[in-house]
């Protein structure tokens, strides 16, 4: 009987010691969201298109030529956990003209596609005086998200009645800019750098 009491106390002391060690060294946080996929980071396509996405700002463009950017970044994942939408409030955007605006602040662009050359002018603006979209909401769709890559598409209307370039509120943007409404037809494959 004495040996079994001694064995019991040895086991009990080992268990208590182990619990004390665990209390002071800590256990992994099983509720941590570190394993969740994230759209945040610097991304680049094969065509050198760049996306810099943070919890506060969004940038899309090329090294020396921004296409659009925004703040108030709101990311909404679909149920599958690998697709969803990024909503931004425009702070800058390229505007375009098909004819020469005779203004030195515009840049002339020559574009060749299928042996056809087109010319247009562009200007990057930050003021709602230059573009009604500034200060309004826009959406970007993403899909097939992994730790290192995803497909991304800015909203461009192609379905009858759905040609918006921005919305006044976030809720309007969530309703308007959807796959069902014909937006997001062309995706770019991007990788995280």
If you had to describe this structure to a student in words, what would you say it looks like?
The chain is α+β, with helices and mostly antiparallel strands. Helix content is 16%, strand content 40%. The protein is built from 2 helices and 10 strands. It has helices at 2-25, 170-176; strands at residues 41-45, 50-53, 57-62, 65-77, 84-97, 107-113, 116-125, 137-143, 149-154, 188-192. Strands 1-2-3-4-5-8-9-10 form an 8-stranded antiparallel barrel. It is globular and about 50 Å long. The protein starts with a helix and ends with a strand.
Short description:
The chain has 193 residues and is α+β, with helices and mostly antiparallel strands. It has helices at 2-25, 170-176; strands at residues 41-45, 50-53, 57-62, 65-77, 84-97, 107-113, 116-125, 137-143, 149-154, 188-192.
- Inertia-based shape: globular
Strand percentage lies at 35-45%
Q: Structural class of the secondary structure composition?
A: alpha+beta
State the order of secondary-structure elements, H for helix, E for strand: HEEEEEEEEEHE
| Uncertain residue segments | 14-34
What's the helical proportion of residues?
10-25%
Per DSSP, the total helix count is: 2
The span between the termini is 67 Å
Largest sheet properties: 8 strands, antiparallel, barrel
Number of strands: 10
Compute the average pLDDT.
84
Strand order of the largest sheet: 1-2-3-4-5-8-9-10
- Rg measurement, Å: 26 Å
């Amino acid at each position: 009987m004495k040996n079994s009491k001694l064995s019991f106390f040895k086991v009990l002391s080992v268990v208590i010691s182990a619990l004390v060690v665990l209390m002071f060294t800590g256990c992994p946080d099983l509720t941590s969201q570190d394993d969740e996929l994230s759209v945040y980071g610097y991304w680049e396509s094969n065509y050198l298109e760049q996306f810099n996405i943070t919890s506060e700002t969004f940038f899309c463009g090329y090294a020396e030529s921004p296409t659009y950017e925004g703040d108030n970044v709101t990311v909404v994942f679909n149920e599958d956990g690998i697709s969803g939408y990024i909503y931004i409030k425009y702070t800058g955007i390229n505007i375009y003209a098909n004819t020469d605006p005779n203004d030195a602040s515009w840049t002339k662009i020559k574009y060749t596609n299928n042996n056809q050359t087109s010319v247009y002018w562009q200007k990057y603006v930050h003021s709602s005086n230059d573009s009604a979209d500034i200060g309004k909401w826009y959406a970007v769709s993403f899909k097939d998200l992994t730790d290192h890559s995803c497909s991304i598409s800015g909203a461009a209307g192609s379905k009858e009645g759905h040609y918006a370039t921005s919305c006044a509120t976030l809720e309007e943007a969530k309703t308007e800019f959807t796959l069902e409404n014909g937006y997001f037809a062309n995706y770019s494959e991007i990788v995280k750098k």
